[in-house]
């Protein structure tokens, strides 16, 4: 039986990278590689493929198999596709394990928890026809290396990446291969995947909105879950006026069934809550949902389960990586995959 559930490990990877959102007219194909050292009981290498923010494929060093995470991926791509993808990514895994050791030497480190990350992919605007590609590396949660596709050269913001930049910028054949991949191959596969999953990707599902406030805590959580597509706005109102003080809004995260969830947390003292009315407003696809915050509201099962899972994963994430403020890192830059990560064959050696 095909297992298409999103595991906690995958969710962790997505939490740590963040999900780069595109507008309604723009479609994106992204791959996220993460290799780690010093983390017991965690795969040393993980590859997660995403289409328009939804997980479509996955490989990890424990299972040693690249597998579909959407039914339509399994239905439209034969076993040879997955076998070939598995063999390609195994080679990439070995390269990344070497890279993390070299990076530790560059940063004068001999032990501890360390990570090398890669985000690469492409975008296509179906209204303007404009395309864009991106390929960026990070080490221990900080920007390490990125490919400027406009000038066709690698750039590093840190001195430890200088040797790698010099080496890669001399290889004009590989640079030209990247240009071809991002301008043609990646876009072709992006369009194929969109066609394969068009019925699923175009579905619209309204969110379920819930608000949780424990009497012993000053924090309240508003959660929207089960919605599709992933673009949603969550805001707080105080006495019917917009309220932004002490509010934190999370990123959209995937549910097991292909829908999404998003939370917003507000800090409100018991005294404030007695004197004022606070409410959560969720806007999705032209619909508006509103829930009033009440003191001492009983825990709602779906919120408790999801919030606890997300909090636990976020805590792990802070230990493993530096989570970016305002999504500062890993943003697509203006400047391989045959659908199963063929561009990985030219991953730079540190």
From TrEMBL:
- What Gene Ontology terms for biological process does this UniProt record contain? immune response
Secretion signal, residue range per the UniProt entry? 1-24
In terms of domain of life, where is this protein from?
A: Eukaryota
Q: Where are the transmembrane segments?
A: 300-321
Q: Which UniProt keywords apply?
A: Glycoprotein, Immunoglobulin domain, Membrane, Signal, Transmembrane, Transmembrane helix
Q: Which residues form the Ig-like domain?
A: 207-284
Q: Does the entry feature the keyword Oxidoreductase, yes or no?
A: no
A GO cellular component entry from the record: external side of plasma membrane
The similarity comment for this entry is:
Belongs to the MHC class I family.
In its UniProt entry, what is this protein called? Class I histocompatibility antigen, F10 alpha chain-like isoform X1
What is this organism's lineage? Eukaryota, Metazoa, Chordata, Craniata, Vertebrata
Name of encoding gene = LOC113119651
